[in-house]
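Sat 14:20. Reprocessing the chain from the morning session after the first attempt stalled halfway. Input below, unchanged.
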Amino acid sequence: MTIAAWPASLPKPVRSTYGSSWSDPRQNTSVGYGAPSTRLRSSAVPQSVALSVKLARDEKAVFERFWQDDLRWGSLPFTMPDPTTDGWALLAADGSPVLDNLGEPILLSHTWTCLFAQDSLPQESMQGLTFNISFNVVVMP
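Finished this time. Tokens:
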């Protein structure tokens, strides 16, 4: 089975609405007395990420087709460029971009494998002619 990919024609998520939290991998192993004790339940810890995109009407149709048809109403996994890493310049210790032999910045690349979060479906609002779609994804380890 091929995993669907985030449509390349859609814009990157909006930075100002980005939010992230880790799942708690700890398990309480206390026996009811003495000092509390925890252990690692799993080393595979998913990350919950809140994202939103601003879309024109034609881009909204692409998102809807992706959500409904490609992902069967958000039930299948997909890959998407990591908005915190993919396409950003690699930086030297002093904060300046690292350049290749042609003087162009070297760009980072990272892809997530994720699922749409089950506890919240994509939400849509309009501002003028722009559609704002916000959604949560679970980034798989």
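The chain has a mean pLDDT of 89.
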